Amino acid sequence: MRYFLILCFAILAISCKKDDKKADTETESSSDISAISTKDFRDFKILDSEIISNEGIWETLDEQMADFSEEKYTALKPLILNQDIPTLQKHMSDGKLSYEVLVKFYLFRIKMFDRENDLSLNSVISLNPNAIEEARQKDQEFLNKKMKHPIFGMPILLKDNINTAEMPTTAGALALQNNTTEDAFIAQRLKQSGAIILGKANLSEWAYFFCGDCPSGYSAVGGQTLNPYGRRTIDTGGSSSGSGVAVAANFCAGAVGSETAGSILSPASQNSAVGLKPTVGLLSRTGIIPISSTLDTPGSITKNVMDNAIMLDAMKGYDKYDFKSIKSNSESYINSLSNASLKGKRFGAFKELMDDSLYMNAIDVLKNQGAEIVEISEEKIDLPDFLRLLNLDMKPDLALYFQISANKDLTFKTIEDVMEFNLKNSEKAMPYGQKLFEGVSKDKSTKEEFEAIKNTLKTNGRQFFDVPMSTHNLDGILSVNNFHAAEAAVAEYPALTVPMGYTEEGAPKGLTFISKPLSEDTLLQWAYVYEQASKMRVGPENYN
Fold first, then answer.
1. Which residues pair with 348 in a beta bridge?
2. Which of 7, 204, 244, 365 would be 267's cystine partner, CB 3.0–4.6 Å?
3. pTM (2 decimals)?
4. pLDDT tier at 434 (50, 70, 90 boundaries)?
């Protein structure tokens, strides 16, 4: 069986022919923005953060956790570990759990596993000092029948490029260590639905558009995130590395990541989780540290499809400050799962992936549920100037974030200001360099040239999917992990990955569904049917 190491940003692969993706049996030059480096991901310069510590993270929470013992934790494991949100809510209704106990359970696990021990994962950068008190308030509201949404009282981790008032938003960068802000739009939406923001998840620094020659999952603030399925043998994926790892290790009920091209699909599939990259604009980007206002979107990473639908429902909403914001065409993604069926659905399956036994097994499951499978070949298209699109977007988009959404005491106004700070603090701020930032700084174009780049990429991306979908009357496309994340990104098509098993080396893989814009309800339905029929997800052995 071919083993692909899924790296998280395959910028280099975009300039390569698709056949090159098949050439190396040890590395996956997948077509998304994440394999910047072919570096051995076990060759870490830095493992543990030199900026934060367990002592600092737990300073305000240790006393609040004094009444939560290991015995209590062990007794609660059958009720909480690997359970979906509806099950957790039923335990609340039955009086078996409280929101305070649930928060303390996840906090206990984070302290037990995440940092400064033999099983450490370095997936959490900071914790909400008010989380336990907020949970107590949810318990009171629950008693008063003020539950607003299925996500009510659920502890959620946010990728640390998403603004939230309780903790700084750092993007993993030393320069932003004190970037305290107001809530991002989606953080507001989660809170309005009753979610508890438990903390911030580590990430590949600056959403993996910074160093170029560095392992995925590394940030100066958070250190090196590791995969619970193989701490130093299996890549975490990225850039939402901490979000994927924290979900896999049961540190939260769900997590939010962000994707430009592959940054949700990659860590979700690498950590045997469900990851949704929604249609660009369905979820607001206001208050999220950007790479590309053309392609960026937040999205959920969860242990199962139902929880992903719950989180999408909670976060959706039109944002007048996001120029790409669009209204959802679904009243409830949760309710849509009750009508889930694959009967008569037609999916295109890539011939180029059919030497993957897990992919073929997944196709058999879909067939058994009534789906029709059509073999297709990848369209021979290029994605010219993809890297330039990111460069040309990031320079003004980051400056706008500093102006509107960052802490007003920060002195940074441009990417060059950050680069100068990094050079003055190079040992801690940039141990792997800042090659991609240098590229952003140097790149220039006319407005007309930039528009032409965007139009060509979008046209080519849509052609990649639309030609086979039209020719064969397909409902969707079947991919693996983040293999076609770049095409989906530039087409602005949604994609959802769901666990489909494990390689001989124990690395998780995901079956990825891709379809037309605003098809999230059907993507979730298809993934739900597949998930329930296949039951492929298994929690990481050392973290159960």
1. 374, 477
2. 244
3. 0.94
4. very high
